[in-house]
């Protein structure tokens, strides 16, 4: 399975969630799987990439069509409950950043993408 999100041509948005797990992770994996399942049903969701190291530091980047789609995801009731649990139980610290993706290229089109930047 390809672990890279299959995003469209830019522009689109990336929500970058960097976090450090706490020691209290009861139900975390179950809720994280449910949030991914739920996000994939949201209008404007484009994909996700996520990784976590042995110390519990993780980064998840979700991709969205526009800021309205991000706002709808943020206001989803089930996601709001999960975010509250994250702040109070699962994370020692986190940072969330929202960025507009204006250019994107991969190994398959790196030469073309590099020429566009020159």
From TrEMBL:
PANTHER family: ABM DOMAIN-CONTAINING PROTEIN, BLL5343 PROTEIN. Keywords: Monooxygenase, Oxidoreductase. Residues 12-82 form the ABM domain. This is Antibiotic biosynthesis monooxygenase. The keyword Cell inner membrane does not apply. The keyword Oxidoreductase applies. It comes from Turneriella parva (strain ATCC BAA-1111 / DSM 21527 / NCTC 11395 / H). GO terms for molecular function: monooxygenase activity. It comes from the Bacteria. SUPFAM superfamilies: Dimeric alpha+beta barrel (SSF54909).
């Amino acid at each position: 399975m390809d672990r890279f999100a299959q995003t469209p041509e830019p522009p689109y948005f990336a929500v970058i969630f960097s976090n450090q797990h706490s020691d209290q992770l009861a139900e975390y994996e179950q809720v994280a799987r449910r949030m991914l399942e739920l996000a994939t049903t949201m209008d404007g969701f484009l994909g996700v990439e996520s990784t976590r190291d042995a110390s519990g530091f993780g980064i998840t980047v979700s991709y969205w069509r526009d800021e309205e789609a991000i706002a709808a995801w943020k206001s989803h009731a089930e996601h709001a409950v999960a975010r509250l649990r994250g702040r109070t139980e699962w994370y020692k610290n986190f940072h969330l950043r929202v960025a507009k993706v204006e250019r994107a290229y991969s190994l398959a089109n790196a030469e073309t993408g590099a020429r566009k930047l020159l």
